[in-house]
Amino acid sequence: MGLVVPTDQEFRKLFKVQGAYIQDGQKVYDLTVSKFGDENATSFDLRDFDGVTSVKDQGNCGSCWAFAAVATIESSHALINKEKLDLSEQSFVNCVDNSGGCSGGWYDFAYNWLLENDAELALEGETPYQKVQNSCTLYEGKSNVKISNYNFIEGNPSTEEVKNLLVRHGAMAVSLDANTNEFLNYKSGVIHTMNTKPTHAVTLIGWDDDKQAWLVKNSWGTYWGLDGFGWVGYNTTGLTGFSWVDVTKNDAAPEPKPEKELVEIDFVHALGSLQVHQELYIQVGRNKAKIFGMNKKGVKYHNRIYVPKGKHNFLIITTTIIKKDNKKSMLFGVSKAKITVKDDKTYKLVYKDRIKKSNVFNLTLEEDDIKVD
């Protein structure tokens, strides 16, 4: 086990940090989040979408909070960047403020630590799990896994709300009471009996309406439950503390131009002095949106899409992470443009006027004059 529920004051601080980070942009951010499944389906399992990594074993260390946090980050990375990585729980056990390593903690503090330190998790092979808390070393390696956004759902969300979040953000961290015979000795069926005080963190990865239950991934090895997984009934007393996390989208190799008669529209950008990351979301008409990640300084990014000649409605959204005075926050740009496409064209995205003194700006499309050294 090892869950330590934050105090009201600590929760208020978490909400304040997350609120200052996203500011007025949450609704815009929600528009850019992809769906990995159908929230109206009678059953859903992230394993069917390659969105779940292997079951792990925390051993005799109260680090369930770190395992739940890492499992959600691994899930988000697998879904967004199509890559399964084994990330290091030990990084959190060593480093996360407001948590006591093997003496217990809370997963949102882990997300917050990554965000505030502009840090990335080590790979498991580089900082392996040792079941003890060691000194903290910020990792500057090659995992390329960083937090884009996270949120904690206050109160007791409805089944429909949790399903909606699960298909959009991947695995969610959740707390429950594991100190019952039904949970400790679970082998099959659906768990219903829990006390109201949560003692343990697990990862929510799916649901089944016929069972009226959530599918969870535990961190007690494959000998617990159904090879490390189990079912917990909807609205079970003690099931609480739902949190999701999104990682940044990695740079990707450009797609080749299709052979059929399409016109290339290139949206170029280079990260500014304060920008540490930018994502570009482009939807043409009702087509599926394209999402591009930009992470490196001194690079002119070419974000190309291909459309037939003619008039098209473009929805263009940028989500930008900036870092100033060692604090990180998000800025958003939005453009709803009607473009008549005749020939290949290149545009530079420019942030113009701020919308109602918020952190959301109108975007304009201008001639490309970007030069990088």
Question: Architecture of the largest domain, CATH level 2?
Answer: Alpha-Beta Complex
Number of strands: 16
CATH class of the largest domain: Alpha Beta
Helix-strand sequence? HHEHHHEHEHEEEEEEEEEEEEE
> What do we call the CATH homologous superfamily of the largest domain?
Cysteine proteinases
Helices, by number, come to 7
Question: Main β-sheet: number of strands, strand sense, barrel status?
Answer: 8 strands, mixed
- Give the strand content: 25-35%
Quaternary state of the chains: single chain
What best-fitting shape do the alpha-carbon axes yield?
A: globular
End-to-end C-alpha gap: 52 Å
- Radius of gyration equals 22 Å
CATH topology name of the largest domain, in short, is Cathepsin B, Chain A
Total number of distinct structural domains: 2
Query: Can you tell me the residue ranges where pLDDT is under 50 for at least 5 consecutive residues?
Result: none
Helix percentage range: 10-25%
Q: Which structural category fits the helices and strands?
A: alpha+beta
